[in-house]
Amino acid sequence: MIWNLGSINIDKFYGVTHHPAGGETLAAHSFSEGLGGKGANMSVAVARAAAPVSHIGAIGREGRWTRDRLLEYGVDTPHIHEIDVPTGHANIVVDAEGENTIVLFQGANVRLTESMIGAALSEASAGDILLMQNETNGQEYASHTAQKLGLRVAYAAAPFDADAVARLVDRIDIMVLNAIEAAQLEEATGAPLLALGIRDVVVTLGADGCKWISDQGERAFEAYPAQPVDTTGAGDTFTGYLLAGLDRGLGMEVSIDLALKAGTLMVMRHGTADVIPDLKEIQDHFGL
């Protein structure tokens, strides 16, 4: 079972020919709205990868539909709390090459209480996985509680904050981050990733695949070919599929390969949580 302490956002997408420069006003040629947030994306990815997942989070009254959507996608939702704070949202600008810039409003995502988190984790069992990102509060309490209960702690270090990683590093079993975040972390700590003492670190490299760093050394995995139209949510999809594979007992190599396949399909789609591929789509696309 995966317990995901994660953000829930209302994503607003704007399609543009190019990213605006400072002071530039640019008309968008398209607009859409959907379910997002790194936490919600990862929960949907876990569910679509055929692993059980319970989401721990908070929304405002106007965001009730996001909880309903997560439930529809197979995510356990009793620990998503409705509070008197607006739901988080993201304004996502996507250019003609599929690259994006994002402005976040955190809202209810950073108003979680220890009692909310503790109530959820009290239902967990030893060997379960606690997944966290850096878009909510409560990571220190959650990781400490998870460690006491015998859960494995997985951390997707985004949006990157070196201080946040430093506060959690001795409790993290699995960390996923991209190449930029990895470089920032090594600069902040003055040490290579292997020296952090984290059992498994996976660095995503976009079109170059990813690398897995463990006490056994470093191994590279090549990406599958894709014609990207929108990179939004691809890293979240990768992380969700990776952890789902581990929860299902597939092993790290097989789980990474499955996550790369999921990420490949994701970058060829516009959207976030609503378009994350399921296992059947991956099997059909790759002829499995």
TrEMBL record:
GO terms of molecular function: ATP binding; metal ion binding; ribokinase activity
Superkingdom field: Bacteria
InterPro entries documented for this protein: PfkB_dom, Ribo/fructo_kinase, Ribokinase, Ribokinase-like
UniProt entry keywords in alphabetical sequence: ATP-binding, Carbohydrate metabolism, Kinase, Magnesium, Metal-binding, Nucleotide-binding, Potassium, Transferase
GO biological process, one term: D-ribose metabolic process
Domain Carbohydrate kinase PfkB: 5-277
Name listed for the protein in its UniProt record: Ribokinase
PANTHER family per UniProt: RIBOKINASE (PTHR10584:SF166), SUGAR KINASE (PTHR10584)
Keyword Secreted: no
Claim: Cell wall biogenesis/degradation is one of the keywords in the record: no
